[in-house]
Amino acid sequence: MVYNFAAGPAMLPIPVMQRVQEEFLNWKNMGISVIEISHRSKEFEALVDETDQLFRQVTGLPDNYEILYCHGGAQMQFSMVPMNLIHRKPGKKALYVETGNFAKIARVEAEKFGNIKVVATGVANNYASIPSLEGVELDEDASYLYLTSNNTLFGTRWDSFPDTGEIPLVVDATSEILGRRMDYSKFGVLFAGTQKNLGPSGLAMVVARKDLIGHALADCPKLMDYAVYQKEHSMANTPNTFAIYMIRLVLEWLRDIGGVDFIEQQNAAKAKLLYDYLDSTDFYRATALPGSRSHMNVCFHLPSEELLQTFVKEAEKQGLYALKGHRMVGGARASLYNAMPIEGVQALVNFMREFARTRG
Amino acid sequence: MVYNFAAGPAMLPIPVMQRVQEEFLNWKNMGISVIEISHRSKEFEALVDETDQLFRQVTGLPDNYEILYCHGGAQMQFSMVPMNLIHRKPGKKALYVETGNFAKIARVEAEKFGNIKVVATGVANNYASIPSLEGVELDEDASYLYLTSNNTLFGTRWDSFPDTGEIPLVVDATSEILGRRMDYSKFGVLFAGTQKNLGPSGLAMVVARKDLIGHALADCPKLMDYAVYQKEHSMANTPNTFAIYMIRLVLEWLRDIGGVDFIEQQNAAKAKLLYDYLDSTDFYRATALPGSRSHMNVCFHLPSEELLQTFVKEAEKQGLYALKGHRMVGGARASLYNAMPIEGVQALVNFMREFARTRG
Lengths: 360, 360
Known about the structure:
2 copies of one chain form a homodimer.
Chain A: E1 3-4, H1 14-22, H2 42-59, E2 65-70, H3 73-85, E3 93-98, H4 101-110, E4 115-121, E5 144-148, E6 150-151, E7 156-157, E8 169-172, E9 189-193, E10 204-209, H5 226-231, H6 241-257, H7 259-279, E11 285-286, E12 297-301, H8 305-317, E13 320-321, E14 332-335, H9 342-359
Parallel strand pairs in A: 1-13, 3-4, 3-5, 5-8, 8-9
Antiparallel strand pairs in A: 2-10, 6-7, 9-10, 11-12, 12-14
Helix pairs in contact in A: 2-6, 3-4, 6-7, 7-9
């Protein structure tokens, strides 16, 4: 048994993986694979409809939101968000909160298309906490306010989302979509790369309030325009059919084990197990501050770079895979997405305790 | 046994499909799936290197060409080609040959970014043949000349590619990449959506002459810029890892059965079998004219719409899947990509003969 703590592409639910394997050569008794059928076949169109319905059922997404399956993963959204939204108001202005590396990349990209203002940043404490928007005046003529809901690299999350009034809130939820209950009516656009809680890589799932669709820049490339995805039900050209197929299975699995409320409790319990241990020892040090701690990515440091290398190697030998932190942050990182069972976290804590005992 | 004649996503080689299934839960004895590992792991980086090397080995791609794995399939290239190339010369001019629907969509998209001139079109005979460029004067200040090497909808192909002199030739080879020997040194850029001869959908493989990279428009979205893909070895963000993994297996399969020269002969024999039968009967009528006939997509008509419907349904009952033509063209279409064995074409011809005998 291997527990895979990779930050993404990441561990997927075992029953889903087994089912994909079982039916890989013969989907729905058609004698061919799901990856070999036309995206325009009635069978695949039904699959996309089912995926939409399951997502709405599991998340409670309101009817005035469209679901779009967009090419390119989350980073393509760093371009698509401004290209589709910034033009809505004459000032072409957008507000960004910088809570980590991906928020920064998104902000730099948006600067190509309009006037970007950083309204808060966590850079002062190296992104160890989410900066507060309390008392920050938000320009009411802004086209949107952008934030990253969970920061994969630095292991932080917004415990609650800010109230942005009439300014549409745009959220990169790549590393915690489906991981916690969210009130989607608060969002203008929410997007997620699929390779963490949704399925394999190479796609983004985007939910957009319908009134925000249809405002793309005049020379917007066809497959960057939300309106094209809306009009063609994400089939303006061939989408990543394997990813959509797997998202459908993951959503069904999530619904059947108890839905988002159940998994949110599970995720909280998993994170608590690890943070409680981290806070109980001086050998390891959690990097994210209480109040901003991610339930999806737990980052921590060891006393030395040498010990870190040994830690990662020995963990791997014991079936605890991919614990190395991101090169920008250093240290270790355990990603505990929906598919990670609590037994995996317990195995990790046991290993960490033993490692600290013998090396500390 | 099902023979799948879908135009794409399409049939993939059986040994490749079986191997994917076998190792789906446990890749390289790591205890996890290839879709669950980081694109930045040494194992996945090695996989991308191997894919590059196999492609170079199989196609003879010269060293002054870069291989890029781009998001969004072939249609994203309809935008990326002008966004990356049209700016190279002050007139922002490009030449397009319209040989079918996808060439037209590409031309319409390119008009957003520069001055587009259609130098030849097959519209007069409903794209039943490839128009000649003999005697057509090509503007020497054009940034590139664009054509579609094989037209999936209309079942035509360029038997040989035109000499465009100093003007870089850009080729959409989506539906025949790896299907025939090509002299890549004649191309500026060649691209292909992956869902026909390469693997599953949701990616494009792009080969670009190195001197043509680095000329993107100033406000080019990050993931539309060839230079970004070149610099980051297509890992500026998480690529479609499953597709790259499968392309590697498909390339290995192709190399091991005899390479492009072998498969080109096979494809010619398959196409000849079907065209010879079509030309021998009055019941069916091939739509593409001799001299322009695709070896990948064979399009034909039946005497009536009613007979067509019956034909498609009865064929499916006999395991001959997805023979309906594209809605824009009507009629029937048999796609005979690399993975289709000649036995499949023989089974189709046998069925067609029997169908004509009983219904003709």
